[in-house]
Amino acid sequence: MFSLTRPTAAAIEEQVTAARDLPVDGPGFLTLALGVENRGLPPGFERDRSRSVLGRGQTAFASAKRAFAQWAPFDLGWVRVANPSASIAVEQIVAVEAQSLGLWTLNLSRIVETTDTSERFGFVYSTTAMHVEQGEERFLLGWDTATGDVWYELEAVSRPRAALARLGFPITRGFQHRFARDSHRRMREAVLADKSVS
Questions:
Q1: Do residues 78 and 99 lie in contact, with contact meaning Cβ atoms separated by under 8 Å?
Q2: How far apart are CA 130 and CA 108, in angstroms?
Q3: Please, how many CA atoms are within 13 Å of residue 52, restricted to the half-sphere of its CB?
Q4: pTM here?
Q5: Helix (H/G/I), strand (E/B), else coil: 41
Q6: What superfamily does domain 2-193 belong to in CATH?
Q7: What does the pLDDT read at residue 197?
């Protein structure tokens, strides 16, 4: 799962195709309506949850939705969606490429739930066996019409699957926290950069 070289376009396509036949193996704790809250997690799983305000009003919400559709939460320099033409739709395989400490990984998950309403937009994906972690993650946008705030929430439950990820657990956790920070920052930048947001 770890490589010293970046996966080629052909390798990415091959792995995405292979992942389509794999079941998801997350613990089934996250839905768009309900996070983990106070429920206990299975042994070895960790939970992360973060929320930030991206802007205010309907225009900012529309801008955030456009950024989601272009996979901006993953457009971090050291992380990207390697199949960016993928749509946010149930059963879609999402291939997340990451580079850390000189190593490359390609992690395959399947979208298991989506929402698209006038005040909510987002998805939950669950890992396949072709992922260095086992778990699931929720990416959710909301527009609070009472306050005007447009927020981005990220919640994940996971445990390391790959031996190297288990051995380097504290480092792995550090990169998970970095991903959350960078993802929130990238979404704020995307909304601010949208010329349609006043």
A1: yes
A2: 5
A3: 16
A4: 0.93
A5: coil
A6: START domain (3.30.530.20)
A7: 56
Q: Please answer whether residues 29 and 36 qualify as being in contact, where contact means their C-beta atoms are separated by less than 8 angstroms.
A: yes
Whether 60 contacts 67, CB under 8 Å: no
Residue 24 CA neighbour count, 13 Å, CB half:
21
Tokens of 49: 């949850």
Nearest to 113 by CA among 128, 99, 123: 123
Which contacts (CB < 8 Å, 24+ apart) does range 75-83 have? 75/186, 76/179, 76/182, 76/183, 76/186, 78/182, 79/179, 79/182, 82/7, 82/12, 82/106, 83/12, 83/13, 83/16
Q: What is the pLDDT of residues 140-192, one digit of tens each?
A: 999 999 999 999 999 999 999 989 888 988 999 999 999 999 999 999 999 99
Torsion angle of the four alpha carbons 10, 11, 15, 16, in this order, in degrees rounded to the nearest 10? -40
Amino acid at site 126: S
Within 10 angstroms of residue 174's Cβ, the number of other Cβ atoms is: 12
> Which pair of tokens denotes residue 175?
């990169």
Could you give the C-alpha distances from 114 to 22, 62, 74, 167, 171, in angstroms and in order?
20, 16, 17, 34, 31
Q: Where are the beta strands (DSSP E) in the chain?
A: 2-3, 46-56, 79-81, 93-100, 103-116, 120-127, 133-143, 149-160
Backbone angles phi, psi at 47, to 5 degrees: -120, 140
